[in-house]
Amino acid sequence: MINTAPFYHVIHKESEVFFHAFQNKIPLLLKGPTGTGKSRFVEYMAHELDKKLITISCHEETSSTDLIGRFIIKGAETIWIDGPLTTAVKEGAILYLDEVAEARPDVIVAIHSLTDHRRELFIDKLGETVKAHEGFMLVASFNPGYQRGFKELKPSTKQRFVALSFDYPKPDIEAEILINESGIDESNAKKLVNIGRKIRNLTELGLTETVSTRLLVDAAKLIHSGLPKRLSVNVAVVEPLTDDPQTLEALKDLVALMI
Ligand code: ADP
């Protein structure tokens, strides 16, 4: 349960979409680059709807067994332990599969029957089918950067969800987020937002991922806690973006002109 309300700036009716998807028992897919507020949004909605949230950060080793459950040996006995997906299905929680495309293909197979009218989970190791609780909701996120080496989701999988796109917020909203998240003053928040926008537009650098709001928030926190501004931006924004010495130098020179 999320007890204190997370700060989330609604950008464009996404909370209404979430609410109606929940009411109508339709799974929701959040698309967008890393650090654009997808996880924060799910936490915010779980709090708004007063629901338990179970988050799984998927990676290439995440399998259906990790989600559904497994037998474990306890003393002389073998006992079954529900995995997080089974728990969410039984208890009626929100299950958030972060970066679902990264998981092993059997994860997509496992959630199949939960994403259509059946709303049921088949536990093959027990030979059991569990009907989802009224309040169960499946939310997944993925990063549609397929041209940069991220895994894709099959169209047939995507079409099982209602989907929302996330992107970097407009400058005034992003500045407000920085102020709220770090306590930084408005003038520095605006400078950070400008740096973010400038680097995002430098597509010729060929960065795998560009400056997310998360990186700007980190820079803002360091500045607010007293680290020199330029150093804060270099360590929080520039260094995490690239390891290429020339690109690093070019970005640091740019930052020196802007803050
Ligand atoms: P994602 O799940 O898309 O990778 P997060 O939800 O972790 O990204 O967001 C990263 C950070 O960016 C959050 O911790 C928060 O500080 C900030 N953020 C991004 N968008 C918003 C927003 N709309 N409202 C509030 N904070 C936001």
UniProtKB/TrEMBL annotation:
InterPro entries: ATPase_dyneun-rel_AAA, CbbQ/NirQ/NorQ/GpvN, CbbQ_C, P-loop_NTPase. Keywords: ATP-binding, Nucleotide-binding. Gene3D superfamilies: P-loop containing nucleotide triphosphate hydrolases (3.40.50.300). The keyword Iron-sulfur does not apply. Residues 27-161 form the ATPase dynein-related AAA domain. Residues 174-256 form the CbbQ/NirQ/NorQ C-terminal domain. The keyword Nucleotide-binding applies. Belongs to the CbbQ/NirQ/NorQ/GpvN family. This is CbbQ/NirQ/NorQ/GpvN family protein.
